[in-house]
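Think of the structure tokens as a kind of shorthand, similar to the way a musician reads notation: each symbol stands for something richer, in this case the local conformation of the backbone. In the example below we present two proteins back to back. Begin with the first one, reading the sequence and then the tokens, and try to describe in your own words what changes along the chain.
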Amino acid sequence: MLSIVALSVSLMMTAETKYSHYYQNLPCAVEEVREVVIPDYTVTLTDFGAVGDGQTDCSEAFAQALKHLKKQGGGHLIVPNGTWLTGPIKLISNLDLHLEPQATILFSPNKELYVQASDTLRDGSKKCHACVYGSKLENVAITGYGTLDGQGIYWRPIKQKKVSEEIWNEVQEMGGVLRPDGNSKNWKIWYPFNLHKKYGIPNIANDPIIQEKMRPHLVNITDSRNVLVEHVHLLNSPKFHLVPTRVQNLIIDGVNIRCPHWAQNGDAMDPGNIQVALIVNCNISCGDDGICMKGGVGQKGVDAGPQRDFLICRDTVYRAHGGFVIGSEFSGGMQRLVVKDCFFDGTDIGCRFKSAPGRGGWCEDIYCQDLIMKNIVESAILISSGYADKGAGVSATDSDNKEAFFPDWSNITFRNITCIGSKQAVDIQGLKGKPVHNILFDEVTIIGNKKGIKMEYAEDIKFTNCNINPKPMPVEEYKKCKNIRYNGQDPDAAE
């Protein structure tokens, strides 16, 4: 009986699809994604009275179109060329939301449209629906070469220290309020609060900081199966752009994501607790992390299961806090993640692994290989167990359980990586009693950087066939580390 089950799994993983060629010559076996199939039935948004002039509210047209498709068992909703103003869109199963190349879905800045009818939280805030959202769905696609624009400028706070004087003056002309930047005493933060006088946009909280916590994501699909996001442009989210969570079988192919580099929490994509996924051919420039793996905080993350069988390849990330990122929360664990054939140019950090006690997890078969990086602002590769999660104008969170869920950074391979230009080559920061361990750097070349390798609380770190300049620091700079080998030598022996 066991052999029959094993054979069935093997056949499922080797069945040819349009994505199978991406899975050739991987460093470990990764389960392949399956194609998403949508019923062969099509309607157009204008069939339901929508007007694409950028001013007419099309919310009811979207709702009626989706209601009609649901009765028909699903199908393709074509959004024609034009600008279609709307409130949040609730997805259904067996749906392809297809945007033609010159189509823009422009999400209304009226914050009241997004507030969920739920109990007020302890801090006075409520949750907001994402601009596009859905839960417990099957067979959902967002396709085409059109654009989803979240108009994030009406939602996001802006830190004065991050922007030019010109931009700072422009946002103040919108109205809003200023508050001190709690993390930088000489600067201020602008909040898009009290915009009703100039734009007719009501507040949804009594305080700008509470309202800031209510910002919605652009696309958020949860607890679902068979999700495809293909070719679309995602712009200017109020918060994160693409947030699939607890999804089985996820494909993100050829997606372009853009927001200003100073956009607060402007992550490009944050898949969390996903089982079987492919992220390929994407192009990103954003205000926070680029491609970021999430795994939940604490026991909830464990209950949701690990982020597993992930292939990320042929992606390009420009401005971002990190090109490829894990964390800060990954309590559910990371298993069989392969990142290959990617290009990072101008990111703050190339490969960024960050977490802290209370939100850490485990790693198994993590491979970053065949990567090219240049113009990295800080570290080419960073592994940190002491990350502090900070919001705009507030101190680091202290809500996590610091006595459990420690980050276990281990079983990670960096292979065939070239980085030209960075401040620091490699920075590894573990914790006392919980060192970063069992990390392999193989054929890694990092040149044009100011500093070499820095480690604290690290064990069993091996560099083979590497060329990292400056050469490794003297052994006293490797604080509380054990069994470090650089091209066969311990750090004290390296020149």
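Once you have a description of the first chain, move to the second and do the same.
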Amino acid sequence: MSRSIALFLACFLPLATIVSAQPETRRYLYLGMPDGAQEEGRSEPPGILVFDIDNGHKLVRRIRIPIFAEGLRGFAGNLKMHRVYYSTTNHRLGAFDLETEKVVWEKTYDAGCDRSAITLDGGKIYVPTGWWYSGEDSGFLIVNGENGELIKRVHVGPQAHNSIVSLDGRRMYLCTSTMLSIFDTGADRLIRQIKDVGERGIFPYTMDSRQRIGYICLGGHVGFDIVNLETGKILHRVLAGDAPIAHRTHGVALTPDERELWISDQVGRKLFLFDATKMPPAPKGHLELSQGGHGWVTFSLDGKYAWTHTPDVFDARTKKLVAALKDEHGKPVSGSKFIEIHFRGRKVVRVGNEFGLGRK
């Protein structure tokens, strides 16, 4: 062996060894239990069920968190803080560290705590006062993400419910009764309000990655409104099925590539699929669900799997049922409070979102 080859191997073999020794990334689905909004699919004791996404969605373990027995209203994550933030029916908000698997803090507020959202730096949590509250001071709390201390309360409108911080971190979206409000997260300044959307009542919603188009569930039929988020103009109303279905819609998601839109009919136990490359989106059929429930739908970050408020796991491309979420006793489990978490070793390296947001 020549001296130059020996030097080459001496320099580069250790590096190759180090690279090959790097831990692989593991993907998990964290399901908060029990869901405060549905009875179906509950499993005791309360806490988080962790499923291995790349191993047939098999249960890895249950993390017991007794306070979850109050019923979860929201379950949002933050990469920088490597935490998930949970809200409960009893006006409680808490932070759970994903790496140490310990509750970091818990606070109870006079106002309720619904589906919350967090700024990318983890500094601020936006906490809706709840779909059950219609007082004049209904809106959201701004809470310190580090310790749970209340920073400010903002009045918006009745039944403040689902909140989303955009993927670029610049905007916070909040739905109240039939209005979608958009805030600047830097100054917490109101930018725009889109009124008379969602038909009636409160609604889940989603949007494309550039925050140009929003899709808002209807409160009286299976379908959705389409709005221009930049102008506030309502563009279309789309109904699912061959004839109007008089169920509320509680669940809407874009595939990460933004080519399809899926909506949930929890009463009818169906998912309706639409071609989102067209405007308005065109029907593509439906999938049957194994149970009813709160209604929800979102996708894995890579777009391979669709998750719902049921135990059913679908292949998003083939539309085939590929797995069912089950607890340690083999009982099917479900809820609408779940989030995708990636680990490399014991470090969190990626965190998903409760909502099925476009990621194109």
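Compare your description with these statements about the second chain. Residues 25-351 form a domain with the Methylamine Dehydrogenase; Chain H fold (CATH 2.130.10.10).
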